[in-house]
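[Automated response] Your request has been received and processed.

Submitted sequence:
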Amino acid sequence: MGKILVDPAEFEERRDTVLKRLVDTAAELAHADAASALYWLTAEDTELHLAFANEQAVQRHFQDKFSRGAEKDSFLVEAALSVAGRSVHDVRKDPDRGRIYVADDCRSAVFMPVRAGGVQQGLLMIQARKPGHIPNNFREDKRFKTIVHLIGAVREMKKPDSALRASVPGQNKPPVNDPQGTSS
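Generated structure:
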C-alpha cells in the first residue's frame, strides 16, 4: 500500500480505491450475498457518514447518515465508539431488535468499530439477508480483523508533501558500486 500511496497527485483517488476494495473484501469474507458499508464518525462523534458501500449495500438502500438522537441511529454511533462492536445472528430474535438498524430484508449483521492509534474513526457494517449468514464469531476472524485494522491505517495515512520526494523503504536507494560483483 505504501508504494501506491506515495504520489501526492493521485493520493486521494488511490486511497479511496484501497478503502473501497477493503470494504468489498470484508463482505466477501462474511458471505457471498453480504452487503457492506463503511461510515466515518464526525469530529464530534455524533454522526456517521457513508464513505464506501459495496453493490449489495447500494441495492439494499443503506442509509447515508446516522445521528445520535434516533434510537437506531444512536445504536450505530455507540457501536462505532465501542471497543468490540456487535454481532447480530437474527435481528428478529435479538433483545435489542428495536434499536438495531438493518437495511431492506437483512436479518444478520456485524457492526465493527474502526480505530487507528486508539482513536475511533468509524464503523464497518456488514449485513446479510438470512439469519446466521454472518456467523456470530465472524468479528474474531483474523482475516476480518486484519481488514478492519488496514481500514484504520489507510484512513490515517497523510497525503505526501509534493515538495519532498516520496520515499518508500527499499525504493530510491543509490546503486551499489561493487567491483567484486558480490551482492550487498
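Summary generated for your ticket: The CA atoms of residues 46 and 68 lie 6 Å apart. Residues 165-175 have pLDDT under 50 and may be disordered.
If you did not submit this request, please reply to this message.
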